[in-house]
Amino acid sequence: MTIPLADLVALLPELVVVGAACLVLALDPILPREQKGALAWLSLSALAVCLGFTASHMDTTTTAFSGLVILDPYAAFWKLLLYVVTGLTILLSLSYLKAERIHLAEYYGFMLLSLSGMMIMVSAADLLTIYLGTELMSLSLYVLAGFKRFEARSLEASAKYFVLGAFSSGVLLYGISLLFGLAGSTRLSDIALAVNTVGIDDPMLLLAMILLVVGFGFKIAVVPFHMWTPDVYEGSPTSVTAFMAVASKAASFGAFLRVFLDGLSGVKANWQVLFLVLCIATLILGNLVAIVQTNIKRMLAYSSIAHAGYALIGVVVAGQLDAESAVRSLGLSSVMLYLAVYAFMTLGAFAVVAMLRKGGVEGDQIEDFAGLAKRQPVAALLMLVFMVSLAGIPPTAGFIGKFYLFLAAVKAGLAWLAVVAVVLSAVSAYFYLRVVMVMYMREPAGEEPILPRFAASPALTVVLACALTGVVLLGLFPNALVSMATQSVLPIR
């Protein structure tokens, strides 16, 4: 069977990323150790090609491979975000991997393979295609989580992630099989027609919907499917943690929004209530448990859980039956906007964590930041900006993201939900500003100042500069990103 050229052109970014990943893995055993850093730049070059292609096709909508893949502005938005996040993560990794003595070129190959799975997820119009993309993303992340093979906690993180991830994948596949039995197809368009035919009270449909919520709930780390997050975030290399916290969450949100708004839009009355419960539980647990954390990576893990809860507010609004179509579209665009700004502030926070070195061991305890304002005033200022943005304090991008989410909730008649989220945002300010207090108001425990070992790394400087620029400029001038998210939303039925 001959594959049409148009289909291959439509999937050119995925082909470029997979080709670059294979090339990296093939060249790794051949190149001398001192030249393996060039493979990182090869990866970045592939991302630049993909970014240019996707940006130039931002306004087009087409399908490929008999409708298994759809290329529309919605998919392009997520892909552009994933390119930026992956590129910044690779730059962050250059110095970090050398400091950790794990500068192995296959790291970049697995990162690109994970990215290709994410790209498939956000472009897929078929449940099995989404599942294949999810597995490609997850299998690569399992390996990356255990990349520090000489550390027990990294191996433990990889093992926990693999076991729980395999369980969630099985649950997701079971839900897909039930929908196939119901609709006779795994295409989202066919499932939407079948849902309208059988009605919202069909027991098999309800069970399939619940199983899909469980499967996707694990990927986006919402309560009660969040158990893996703190341990995996803590044990994984910091650069991998940053990638998981941002890229995998964005791709998973992109895929599951398409599934529920396109394929399961006929049962909004059921899943909207379910997501409302998950949203409130996630907000409460994520923000309250983060208060007692002493490890900065575990604190950011629970912060990531809480931010998934904030994003679910937009999902709840998008499923509000009695709201106007414009309001539901606002809910969806606010999710996209929020995850975009979340990417910059979270990547920036993890980049500062990666900078802090203490005797050759990661300084990932909050107390390790004591006196940082005196030892490294620039690093302390950067962390201050990222913590303030994560707390949603103006005039940062974090405030803009939460503002649009809360605005959508109020317009949809869910003002009480916005009030709950605002109260829990005030709670979150405690554990974010505690880091600031430690940096500026406590003296370091040691007599000698502890300096980051690669604070002057040019690549890391670029990452921090990009993250800072995103947090500040999107907080002061958000209109361009708001407009982009608004124009990229899925049609709301």
Integer-rounded radius of gyration: 22 Å
If you average the pLDDT, what whole number results? 86
- Number of helical regions: 20
- Global shape: globular
Main beta sheet strand tally, sense and closure = 2 strands, antiparallel
Which consecutive residue ranges, at least 5 long each, have pLDDT under 50?
Answer: 358-362, 450-455
Let me know the number of strands.
Answer: 4
Class by alpha and beta content: mainly alpha
Strand order of the largest sheet: 1-2
Tell me the series of helices and strands, N- to C-terminal.
HHHEEHHHHHHHHHHHEEHHHHHH
What is the rounded distance between the termini?
36 Å
The share of residues in extended strands comes to under 5%
Helicity range of the residues? over 70%
Describe this structure in words.
The longest helix is centred in the middle third of the chain and has 32 residues. The protein starts with a helix and ends in a 6-residue tail after the last helix. It contains 20 helices and 4 strands. Helix 11 runs antiparallel to helix 14 and helix 16 runs antiparallel to helix 18. A hairpin with a 4-residue loop joins strand 1 and strand 2. The strands form 2 sheets. A two-stranded antiparallel ribbon has the order 1-2. It has a two-stranded antiparallel sheet with strand order 3-4. With 493 residues, it is mainly alpha-helical.
In short:
By secondary structure, this protein is mainly alpha-helical. 74% of the residues lie in helices and 2% in strands. The strands form 2 sheets. A two-stranded antiparallel sheet has the order 1-2. It has a two-stranded antiparallel sheet with strand order 3-4.
